[in-house]
Design goal:
five-stranded parallel beta sheet; two-stranded antiparallel sheet; 5 helices; globular; disordered N terminus
């Protein structure tokens, strides 16, 4: 079960009791969620907010759920984040929308948890966060820059932003 952050109207994941002391990881999580919500307000997002990859990693370590919406092929060939929940937004092959996305999400992530969505560069995860918020996930967040980040001037990813470029942990098959 999550609990309400009264000041910021976001659900925080459940943390171990020792995290609840002042100046601890709970305070850090609260600060990150406040920043995410502020980004969401500034961008007029229809969901709780947006986090940077490094912020998402810290929140994940503290109990937030990370849902990777990339295709099975992307996870296999490009890399994946251990501990992330994989639910394709679009099916592979063919790129057709996954009609079971919300059913799968609801079976794997309780609505009272902070849930963060990740894709290659932030587009599909934005749509997943919208869909999640639409069915009652009050703490749905998009991970800005995604796993691979934006393209640089040479048209290459994994250089400008993203989970990998931030040096965060990931594995490849």
């Amino acid at each position: 079960m999550g609990f309400w952050s009264r000041d910021y109207n976001l659900l925080l994941p459940t943390f171990k009791p020792f995290f609840r002391r002042r100046g601890t990881l709970l305070d850090q999580a609260t600060t990150l969620l406040q920043q995410a919500q502020q980004r969401g307000r500034e961008a007029k997002l229809p969901y709780a907010g947006a986090v940077l990859p490094s912020e998402a990693h810290l929140l994940m370590l503290q109990g937030a759920r990370l849902v990777d919406v990339r295709t099975a092929a992307e996870l296999e060939w490009v890399g994946r984040i251990e501990g992330a929940i994989s639910i394709e937004w679009n099916r592979w092959p063919g790129g057709q929308p996954n009609p079971d996305f919300l059913t799968q999400l609801q079976s794997l992530v309780p609505k009272d948890h902070t849930v963060m969505f990740l894709c290659r560069s932030g587009g599909r995860s934005h749509n997943a966060a919208i869909a999640a918020a639409g069915v009652g996930y009050q703490a749905a967040l998009n991970i800005l820059q995604g796993f691979e980040g934006d393209k640089n001037t040479a048209g290459q990813r994994n250089v400008l932003g993203g989970w990998r470029a931030a040096g965060l942990p990931w594995v490849q098959s």
